[in-house]
Amino acid sequence: xxxxxxxxxxxxxxxxxxxxxxxxxxxxxxxxxxxxxxxxxxxxxxxxxxxxxxxxxxxxxxxxxxxxxxxxxxxxxxxxxxxxxxxxxxxxxxxxxxxxxxxxxxxxxxxxxxxxxxxxxxxxxxxxxxxxxxxxxxxxxxxxxxxxxxxxxxxxxxxxxxxxxxxxxxxxxxxxxxxxxxxxxxxxxxxxxxxxxxxxxxxxxxxxxxxxxxxxxxxxxxxxxxxxxxxxxxxxxxxxxxxxxxxxxxxxxxxxxxxxxxxxxxxxxxxxxxxxxxxxxxxxxxxxxxxxx
Length: 293
Fold this sequence. Notes:
GO molecular function: DNA-binding transcription factor activity; sequence-specific DNA binding
CATH architecture of the largest domain: Sandwich
Number of helices: 12
InterPro entries: Homeodomain-like_sf, HTH_AraC, Tscrpt_reg_AraC-type_HTH
Oligomer: single chain
Organism: Terrimicrobium sacchariphilum
Keywords: DNA-binding, Transcription, Transcription regulation
Protein name: Helix-turn-helix domain-containing protein
Low-confidence stretches: 136-140, 278-293
Number of domains: 2
């Protein structure tokens, strides 16, 4: 699980609205103070809802949403973007869903403390993927996983248990275990048989569970994680393509480049030129909004 973006500060969505678009990430946007409007685009219909802080707006990666308000509106926000979400959130919100959760002013210090933990991890592990890789292996900081788990718990505390749905079943648990083991051992380029053996399954059973739970093969799921890790590492200009290829299990810069171009239609160098210094579209808009405010 990667924390792709985090930010805190004031927003003026009334004077500088953000048009609806999908973020491509799981977004936790906490409005700590002020009033605002969330804009949702569903089935070609735009809906604008006026809301008041403190409020959490949790959106799936495919949710087409934006922000607006009245002239002069000023909010104070804390924002997290993750590439994945825990099972309860995926079940309740859905990849294209939006959930609005009111909470108490007394709970704001909890959210601030989680944000500050990310700052602490950044200071200890470094500010770039290369620094993190030197100090913590090619693991994303564990603290970010802890923060994601605590955000999930915070969310669930404000949702009726009747909406939680059934807990993950055996298949979902084993698929999650397989993904976690693969991420931890990605640099060694483990094959499906090795992953299956590590979690005490046969390769055939593992394939069957992946198709049942995710609707895809384990190889496709593993390859997706490889490319996500590679794109994250390439955010550091000091990280060579050789290092990226080795740390993500491709073995070399040339093998990584061929696989990347086949997958995305551009070379890693072209991707880096286009995205270096730019994160997601959501990051750019949020940063621009902050500068204007």
